[in-house]
Give the backbone structure.
Amino acid sequence: MTANRKPRVLVTREVFDETLDYLRQHCEVIDNQGDRPYAPEALGKALAACDGLMCSLTDRVDAALLAAAPNLKAVANIAVGYNNIDVTACTVRGVMATNTPGVLDDSTADLAWTLMLGAARRITEVERRVRTGEWTGWRLKQWLGVDVHHATLGIIGMGRIGQAIARRAVGFDMKVIYHNRKPIQPELERKANASYVAFDALLAQSDFIVLQVPYSPATHHLIGAAQLVKMKPSAILINSTRGGVVDDAALIAALKNGTIRAAGLDVYENEPKLNPEFLALDNVVLAPHVGSSTEATRQAMAMLAAKNLVAALKGETPPNLLNPEALRG
Ligand code: GLV
């Protein structure tokens, strides 16, 4: 920060008052408390004279945007996933990029479990039936679900959130298997009570499959028709990470023809314009990308993003710097 001028930052979406109060102690802030998302060109214009950007996963930060913001020094994403940011393009321009790891692990793990339990016990479907008056009384074979307890949980992507999902399985007496680029430390495996298996073995053995890998070209359509047929017909698939990890059209076909039993989704390809065929299916629980959406967690994420941004603009190394290479050169 220069001695005589506070750095100027743009906050692209609505944030908490405390987030803005903190930012304003250190920066001149252009806020968007009206929460109207910027179109890409408008974002470029708004950013032209800014030193910092606090953005969300709905904003695309790419080479074209960076070119429109010659003074930009730092981009702070209010999310742990950062597939909306071209980190390489940031590095090329010497722009620091940060995310918000750690503070949302438990809330996101809770939501993955909400989807698992919801899909297993058909909770959104039966709730609809109550609301429409279709429920006329108790019957033995009414809207039968499947047990979560004592089932096998397969987690694909065993980072902090995957491990938090695994730890919750202890109380359900589940067997937990996982697949990851490489096995996690034995100590973490022990805490998660989970064993590493090959990808195809996980698909074949799991009753519940939870996806927790970050989205990237390498994980695009990690689950498509070829993987869905390798799952048990009784399997339930949970996507609590990012749209695009699952081929939604292939999943819809699998849910329709009984290739797998059910799914629980918090994220979609092209969200929020999800494939309308999902809406007609009873065997899918649909959530609107609310994995981290508790009051405490979203506040913590926004504050962590603000702290990352302020540190970067003060010339310090922000706590969650994604591209230390941006500092060299
Ligand atoms: C939410 O999806 C996040 O990546 O933080």
Observations:
- The chain has two domains: 8-103+295-328, 105-286.
- Residues 295-313 form the longest helix (19 residues).
- The two ends are 19 Å apart (CA to CA).
